[in-house]
Amino acid sequence: MNRILTILTMILSLNVIAKSDNEFKDMYLCFPIGQIEVDAEYDRVRWPNSDLNNVCSLGFHIRKTNPAYFYYSRSWRDPSYCKSFMHKWAELKKENKEICIAARLDPPNKKKYKGKEFFQRSAPYEVIKSGNWCHSYFDGYCD
Hints:
With 143 residues, the chain is of the alpha+beta class. The protein is built from 2 helices and 8 strands; from the N terminus they run H-E-E-E-E-H-E-E-E-E. The chain is globular.
């Protein structure tokens, strides 16, 4: 299953052309930075025609809203990418009160977390930004 998702992600990534941040201007939702839980998931995967590779993906959970939100990486990245992002995130938490995230969100789905049911919207993130910082999955969105 991971292999199929990886291949689909790679194909979709090849079809994306870098665009300006204005494409997402109506898609941003902003959250107090203290409500955002960020995690990096590390794994080992075998790409087609290669050995096992160490990989990671990022996840952003906002559970104190109704509906809750979950933003995630579009595909696996090198572990150094996640380590670098987590280091930067620690700095951002000190310097910013809110972070805005642009994504094409799915309709709310019923989920369960720690025994409680809730509605959650999710999507791969496109752009994450604050007043003095911008991070995008694809190059060109923060230009």
